[in-house]
Specification:
mainly alpha; 8 helices
Length: 207
């Protein structure tokens, strides 16, 4: 049992070495935050204002760079007007509310809300057995044997991200959290890719 567990863990970590180069939309927002934050702390006397500006810059750039993909995916399932409404609500709408609140804690908790919502969607898929999100996100034929396991893995992954974010909110400074937020797309992509590959190797078609 111990040997099997150690082998599974070793294969999981080996998956990180096979990760493909990251697209620019994953790296650029984090780079912007990492460079903007110390400059903003110098230029702005108020740490709260500096936090909000850095957060909005990073989040706004991330939304702008992902907008085309979001529109394509949404348009494939709903009508044109509904796509516009959903994109505006999930993107500029949510960001506008955070700007109006001018509350760093709300920005931090928004991240927990995002991962919690994702975990809930995957959990619904587990309950009804449709695995719709998994089939939509990984439509490749070789992934079809992974639907049940990968959906459960994604529930655990997103809940773990909620716990990690809440731990940082309670025990780390705003500076540390902001740096974490900037690096999060890179870190989460690494972890998620390794998880998907590990599940595919074990449960995918032809495994």
């Amino acid at each position: 049992m111990l040997a099997t567990t150690c082998d599974s863990v070793a294969q999981f970590f080996r998956s990180f070495r096979r990760t493909t180069p990251f697209p620019v939309e994953i790296l650029l927002p984090g780079v912007l935050i990492l460079f903007a934050w110390p400059l903003l702390r110098i230029w702005l006397d108020d740490a709260r204002t500096a936090f909000m500006v850095a957060f909005v810059l990073g989040m706004g750039l991330r939304l702008a760079m992902k907008s085309r993909l979001m529109i394509i995916r949404t348009r494939a399932h709903v009508s044109g007007p509904a796509t516009v409404a959903l994109i505006l609500l999930a993107g500029p709408g949510a960001l506008g509310l955070l700007i109006l609140s001018a509350e760093p804690l709300l920005c931090q908790r928004f991240l927990s809300l995002y991962f919690g919502f994702a975990a809930a969607l995957y959990a619904i898929d587990v309950v009804d057995g449709s695995y719709a999100i998994n089939r939509l996100r990984w439509p490749q034929p070789e992934m079809r044997g992974t639907d049940a396991v990968l959906t459960r893995v994604m529930v655990i992954y997103n809940l773990a991200m909620v716990l990690a974010n809440e731990a940082l909110i309670h025990h780390a400074s705003q500076t540390t959290w902001l740096l974490y937020f900037g690096l999060l797309p890179l870190v989460s992509n690494l972890i998620r890719t390794a998880l998907v590959r590990r599940v595919q190797e074990s449960y995918g078609a032809g495994a």
